[in-house]
Amino acid sequence: MLKLRDGIVELYRKAATSVPPDVEEALKSAYASEESPLRKESLSAIIENIRSMRQSAQPVCQDIGVPVFSIKAPRGLSHIELKNTVREATVLATQKVPLKPNAIDILTDKNSGDNTGIGFPIIYLEETADDTLKIDLMLRAYGCENAEQTYRLPREELNASRDLEGVRKCVLDAVRKTKGKGCPPYVLGIGIGAADDQVSVLAGQQLFRRLNDSSEYPAIGELERNLLDEINRLGNGAEGFDGKTVALGVKIGVNHRHTSSYCVSVFVSCWASRRARLIW
Q1: Which of 75, 105, 189, 263, CA to CA, is 20 to 30 A from 230?
Q2: pLDDT tens digit string along 133-142?
Q3: The overall pTM is greater than 0.85
């Protein structure tokens, strides 16, 4: 597991010091089409920061947030060993990259100093029929993740019913509530399903998706595209937004719901959508 540990350290380095190509291309495209001088200047600064930090191998953002792993492991590979390897790699990466330590003990309020602790980093493990180990890492910054909203439909004040139109209203409400805070342009992850904890996990998982992919369900893919267009039309200077690009992407995941429940979770990621993948 030593080679895997070192591979995860480099995964941390890659995630921390750069953004994925699809995100960088989306930012450059937004800059090229932007008409607002203020937003154009902001996008230019973001793009230059990405270039500079990649060149100097320094973290794109000083706050690495919470590391979240989504791991798909082949049969026979110990999940206990994998989790221990991730934690060991986290300690080393904190020293070597370096990464700002963020793990705070709930009882003592002390920082562990190495980004590990109870449930920290967050690790989701799933068995797969594939022969390869796939490790996805996202550094989720909480300046904007504190804007996460969970809804239970119907929602009377939004006139939102238990349908995709109701989901649309929830997503727009969540974006408006950010009031432009949390380093836009955003990437939004949305989960729909039966229970609050289920849809929160599902919404977070959507942030691992590439911006140029589309849902396997045509109706959801259409909703993703329509919502992105509608969110970007909010950039008229109202509600804290400015310019043509409020969001870079909208990604929606769905689960079956209960007859008496319809839960929607909306996660907001800043432009620094720091994700990276290791295939082993």
Answers
A1: 263
A2: 999 999 998 7
A3: yes
Element (H, E) at 228: helix 218-232
For residues 184 and 102, state if they share a domain.
no
Q: Which contiguous run of DSSP H or E holds residue 9?
A: helix 2-17
Helical H runs in 72-129? Answer: 79-96
- Give the whole-angstrom CA distance, residue 239 versus residue 74: 47
Q: How far apart are CA 253 and CA 265, in angstroms?
A: 10
Domains contained in the chain, number: 2
The verdict on 136 and 147 lying in the same domain is no
Identify whether residues 160 and 261 lie together within a single domain: yes
Q: Are 250 and 174 within 8 A, CB to CB?
A: no
Whether residues 147 and 256 fall in one domain: yes
Q: Write the pLDDT tens digit of every residue in 52-94.
A: 999 999 999 888 889 999 999 999 999 999 999 999 999 999 9
- Averaged pLDDT, 237-254: 84
Q: What is the pLDDT of residues 88-125, one digit of tens each?
A: 999 999 999 999 999 999 999 999 999 999 999 999 99
Residues 6 and 102 in one domain: yes
* Residue where a domain terminates, one of 140, 160, 179: 140
CATH number of domain containing 80? 3.30.360
